[in-house]
Amino acid sequence: MERTLEVACEGTASSFTVRKLSRATLYGSKRRAPVDAEGRECRAAALTRDGRFLLPLGTTATLYLDDQGDTVERGELRSARGGGNAASGSEPHPAEAIELLGCTARQVYVLVPVAVSGRLDELLAATGLCRLDAGDGGDGRGEARFLVKNDAGYFLLVGENAGFALVGPEQADLSIPDAGEPWDDLDLAML
Fold it and tell me: What's the predicted TM-score (pTM) here?
């Protein structure tokens, strides 16, 4: 089943199919497989803490584990988010490149347009970049999502705000201390 992204922009809806972009997708990948003395491929497994069971790859995917490695019943699970519900989306708004530079991208997705509204295309035509709010509560430290359009197509960048201000050349202190003033920060005699 394909994942879809729907963006509502001033009452009009745009829809995209989503595909994760990775280094392996772009450049391909090689897989190294360890083998035993007889040439059979080795497989990963997990041994329970008491040593009674050997769990082959994939069997722990159906388990929920706590920080100590013990299983947790499905009924005992609680949401990690404060509200318990998924974050609600909001209108996209045009962004400048400086906003994107203030974030650390974790994932990049290729978006294949199914239906794109004219209003969203107008927003993207200005800078090629729109910010989608991720419901981070307005503190500015949460998840950051950017919709990008360029000659290669549409992309979704998901990351987090870096939390620091960029320093430009006009803000940096490039002054050289006087000859009589010692440099306490860097003692070359120790090297």
Answer: 0.55
